[in-house]
Amino acid sequence: MAPSKRSKKLGSLSSTRPPTIKSQHAALSSKATRTLIRSHHQLLKARAQAERSGDEARISSIDAQIQANGGLESYQTASKIGQSLERGGDSSKLLLDWIKPQLNEWNTSLPKLRVLEVGALSTKNVISRTPSLEVSRIDLNSQEPGILKQDFMERPLPPADTDGNGNGDGERFHLISLSLVLNYVPDATGRGEMLKRCVKFLTSNCPISLPPTLFLVLPVACVDNSRYVTEKRLLEILSSLGFELAQSKRTSKLIYQLWNHTGAKTPTKSFKKEMLNPGHTRNNFSIILKKG
User: Hey, CA dihedral for 207, 105, 122, 261, is it positive or negative?
Assistant: First the structure.
C-alpha cells in the first residue's frame, strides 16, 4: 500500500479566517484541530495585548510563533475542518431549520431575503442553496470566488433611516450570521462593537414575517468555562442591544443561538469585564459593551 500523503505546511499570516480546504487535510485529527485553533487564539490575544502596550518586540516574537505554527492558513484549515460534516456539519443547516416556518411564506413573486454571512468559509453551504435567500459572504482572508475579502468592522454603514421610510435598506440585511466569528475577535471591546454593528446592518422591512435576525455560534466554553461570560450574561448583553432569544441549542462543543431584534437600536446598558466565575482553569473570554 502506498504511503498516505502528508498535508503540506501552509503559508504566511495575513488576516483571519479560512480558505477552502483540500481533501487531504481531512485527516487532521479532532485533537490536533482543537490544539491548533486554541493555540492560534491564545497567540492572537497576546498580540492584541502587546499592541495595546506598544511592545513591538513582543509583537514580532508572537508573529514568529504564529508563523512557526503554520500561519493563518493552518488555523483556517483547522476551522474549516471543524465545521466539516465529520465534525458536526454545516451550521447553516440548523439556521435554515429554525427559520423554515417563515421561509415557507416566501414565493417567487417576492424579493429574496438578504443574508450577510460574516467569516464565510464556503459558497456551497445550505443557506447558499436556498432559493429564497440572497447571501452576501465576507471574510478577512477570502480565497474562494464568491466570498468578498472584507472586514465587517470596516464595511461602510448603511445610510441612517431618519425618515422611517427604509432609507438605505438595500445595504441592510434581514439576517446576519456570526458562526464562530465573535470568539475570534481578539479583544473584549471589539466583540461588543461587533454586536452593536450588527444592529446597524439589520432591517425590519421584510417581505415575510421574519424579524431582523442574528444567528450566533460560539464554542460552548465561551459561556460555560469563562471567568467573565455566562449564558445569562450573554443573554443580558444581547437583550440590552434589543435582541430576544428565539432558539438555542447546545452540543458538547458549540452553542447555537437565534436572536430576533425587536428593541433598541443602541445599547440600553453597559457591561464591563466583570469576574463571574473565578477559577484558575477557566478561560478569559469576555465581551465589553458600551452604552450608546
Answer: positive
Cell 499592541, located at residue? 51
What is the rounded distance in angstroms from the CA atom of residue 135 to the CA atom of residue 117?
7
Distance CA 147, CA 128 (A): 12
Q: How many domains does the chain have?
A: 2
Helices marked H in 29-140 — which ranges? 30-53, 56-68, 71-82, 91-103
Q: Residue 169 in contact with residue 158, Cβ under 8 Å?
A: yes
Do 204 and 247 have their domain in common?
A: yes
Cell of 195: 454586536
Q: Of the candidates 87, 113, 136, which is a domain's last residue?
A: 87
CB atoms within 10 A of CB 31: 8
- 139 known ligand binder: yes
Single pTM value for the model: 0.77
Give the span between the Cα atoms of 197 and 201, in whole angstroms: 7
Asked whether residue 5 is assigned to any structural domain, the reply reads no
Residues 103 and 223 in one domain: yes
- pLDDT tens string, the chain, 292 residues long: the values are 554 444 444 433 334 443 343 434 445 566 666 666 667 656 766 776 777 678 777 777 777 777 776 666 666 555 555 554 434 468 999 999 999 999 999 999 999 999 999 999 889 999 999 999 999 999 988 878 999 999 999 999 998 776 666 677 889 999 999 999 999 898 999 999 999 999 999 999 999 999 999 999 999 999 999 999 999 999 999 999 999 999 999 999 999 999 999 988 889 899 999 999 999 999 999 999 999 8
β-bridge partners, 255? 218, 250
